[in-house]
Amino acid sequence: MNNYNKLNHTTWDFEYRLIWIPKYRKKLIYGTLRQYLGEGLRELAMQKESNIIEGGCLILS
Fold first, then answer.
1. Are 41 and 35 in contact (CB under 8 A)?
2. To the nearest 10°, the Cα dihedral for 36, 40, 27, 25?
3. b/e sequence 37-55, b meaning 16+ C-beta within 10 Å
4. Does residue 47 belong to any structural domain of this protein?
5. Is the distance from CB of 30 to CB of 59 less than 8 angstroms?
6. What does the pLDDT profile of the chain (61 residues) look like in tens digits?
7. What is the DSSP string of the chain?
8. Range of the domain at 49
9. Number of domains the chain contains
10. What pLDDT is recorded for position 45?
11. CA 57 to the chain's CA centroid
12. Is residue 5 one of the residues assigned to a domain?
């Protein structure tokens, strides 16, 4: 994406990494609810004028 912020003597690229782990990991979250979570997170990012570059969901047993 190379959207670097610049000043006279500095250049930077600032990113956040968000990891969300629910206390009770039910398979429901990773089934039909998964698409609604993605839509909700994208909407929140747009409200904060942010971009979601990549998303994923991993089931750990």
1. no
2. -170
3. eeeeeeeeeeeeeeeeeee
4. yes
5. yes
6. 567 778 888 887 777 777 777 776 666 666 677 778 888 888 988 998 888 888 777 666 5
7. ----EE-SS-EE----------SS--TTTTTTHHHHHHHHHHHHHHHTT------------
8. 25-61
9. 1
10. 87
11. 11
12. no
First to last CA, the chain: 34
What is this structure's pTM? Answer: 0.53
Dihedral in degrees, nearest 10, Cα atoms 53, 59, 60, 61: 180
Query: Position of tokens 């047993």?
Result: 61
Rounded to whole angstroms, the Cα distance separating 7 from 9 reads 6
Residues in the chain: 61
